[in-house]
Amino acid sequence: MPVKRDTSEIWGAIGSCHGFTSIDELSRAMNISPATIYNYINNETLPTPIKIGGRRLFVNAKLKQHLAGLTEEGAS
């Protein structure tokens, strides 16, 4: 069983644009439920994750870009 990353490691990985983040990890980092993550995916608030080995994973580069776009929209 993989070791769970803490919140700072998850945000660090997203910020570095390298690797992948699971739905469970993102829900812990954002302090929201996985169901809310799926709702955000369905209404395009979050990018569509890719599927690797049966797991849905966000590409960190796309996730960072998408979250930065949301921040810019909120600021205007």
Describe the protein's architecture and organization.
With 76 residues, this protein is an alpha+beta fold. The protein is 57% helix and 14% strand. It has four helices and three strands. The protein has a three-stranded antiparallel sheet with strand order 1-3-2. A hairpin with a 2-residue loop joins strand 2 (50-52) and strand 3 (55-59). The mean pLDDT is 91.
In a few lines, what is going on in this structure?
The chain is of the alpha+beta class.
Q: Portion of residues in helices?
A: 55-70%
Beta-strand level of the residues, as a percent range?
A: 5-15%
- The spatial strand order of the largest sheet comes to 1-3-2
End-to-end separation = 43 Å
The count of strands amounts to: 3
Integer count of domains: 1
Order of helices and strands: HEHHEEH
Per CATH, the architecture is: Orthogonal Bundle
CATH C-level category = Mainly Alpha
The gyration radius over C-alpha positions equals 12 Å
Low-confidence region ranges: none
Q: Main sheet, how many strands, which sense, barrel?
A: 3 strands, antiparallel
Mean pLDDT: 91
Q: Per CATH, what is the topology?
A: Arc Repressor Mutant, subunit A
Shape: globular
Q: Which structural class fits the helix and strand makeup?
A: alpha+beta
Number of helices: 4
Topology:
Blueprint: H1 7-16, E1 20-22, H2 23-30, H3 34-42, E2 50-52, E3 55-59, H4 60-75
Helix pairs in contact: 1-2, 1-4, 2-3
List keywords for this structure.
alpha+beta, 76 residues, 3 strands, Arc Repressor Mutant, subunit A
